[in-house]
Amino acid sequence: MKIERILNFLVEFYRKTEFTYKLFMRARTMRMASSSRWFQLGWTFQNIKGNKILDVGSTGSLLPIQLAGMGYDVYSVNHRNYKDYHGLVHPNMEFIKGDIRFAMFPDESFNTVVAVSTLEHVGTKDYGNRLIENEGDLKAVKEISRILETDGRFIFTVPYNGTTPQPPQKTYNEETLRRLLKGLFRVVDEAYFYKKNRFWYKATSVELKDVKGEKQTCIVAIKV
Known about the structure:
Layout lengths: L1 H13 L3 H16 L3 H11 L4 E5 L6 H7 L3 E6 L3 H5 L6 E5 L12 E7 L19 H12 E12 L14 H8 L3 E12 L2 E5 L1 H4 L6 E9 L1
Parallel strand pairs: 1-2, 1-4, 2-3, 4-5
Antiparallel strand pairs: 5-8, 6-7, 6-8
């Protein structure tokens, strides 16, 4: 395929000289080291249960392709078309263009639902959302509960208290997280991270209270 030849050319180009190779490696390392994706995805992989997985808001991510390649039966939902952005969809993955607030799945369809850096954008103007709703995240979580099997896992990551997101993106704290999950899920595991001088570090929720700047929390919750 033409696109594959172009990609192969670009890969070989950066290997042409030691200078271009180092330039590429340093740019990639600096970008990845400062990204929250590395611990968000690691958290997701180690906490998935069952085989039928829904990845919510995944069009900007390779996660559904990675999960499909690992043998999971993967569904992906987003209002932006996945193939338009990535050029391909894994054979073990089914993409549904839509809004998680109005999920077109039967009750108890999935073993695990994943939402990496997604809930804070639901109902906001981010990424061209058309339906603006102050409590869009609450409506999304209710739908996620409906389509999860009993005792199914909801794995999600969100900006934590102290983060200064670009509006209208939301940030969360202990109180808003409890409100988000109340009556629907119970938390069985959680982790907290903060960013300092380009790098991310793990911390406890207590330690995080004294930290300024960008913070994230990763949650595993069970449907009740």
